[in-house]
């Protein structure tokens, strides 16, 4: 009987010890998780506070720029140089901002992906530099996007220039050089014994204003070159006026 009592007491003690171990194991991660949640909450609050202060103090660099949205999580702004040289820039804030770089998006559905990647790279570099210095990224990112748009007149005709280069390549030439800041692109083409070297200048407000074409060198007789240039200038005038100059070609293609 005495031996039975000792066995029962020993079993009770073992059971209590095991229960204590389980309780300790279960509560320790909970305490750690609570501390982590509190830390994250404080980080999110600090991020939101800094973003709100930055948004309130921000002044768009140009009257045409439009601040579309400003929340604790993001800022969305439309950067406009011309109606056809513009992008939407979105900054997504992360915990630790401004020491942690904001995630940047650049959007314009009319632009090809390679062009958007170039603008985004400039904006991301500005965001990373701001984070390294522990300062807000909104103004630097917007300035970087605007600088790219202002410094590249080819932005609204990116695809057109590529098509021109391909047409010239099929005729033994191609794009011979380009100056995006001045909007000047040089092309060359050659068919048989004839060759032509010409340049196209894209104006700052393209396509509201038409391009200018200059023949730099040619094997064609000058009177023929003058006739061709006159036809090109008329075509440019009609394009700037909004005419669908490709309609006859499309109709002919459909008929055949």
Quick gist of this model?
This protein is an alpha+beta fold and 256 residues long. It is 50% helix and 22% strand.
What is the terminal-to-terminal distance? 111 Å
Order of helices and strands: HEEEEHHHEEEEHH
Strand content: 15-25%
- Specify the number of helices: 6
Q: What class do helices, strands and sheet pairing give?
A: alpha+beta
Observed structural traits:
single chain, 256 residues, alpha+beta, elongated
Would you kindly provide a written description of the structure presented here, covering whatever features stand out?
This protein is α+β, with helices and mostly antiparallel strands and 256 residues long. The protein has helices spanning 2-57, 113-132, 138-150, 158-169, 222-240, 247-255; strands spanning 66-70, 74-82, 85-92, 103-107, 174-179, 184-191, 194-201, 212-218. The chain is elongated. The N and C termini lie far apart (111 Å).
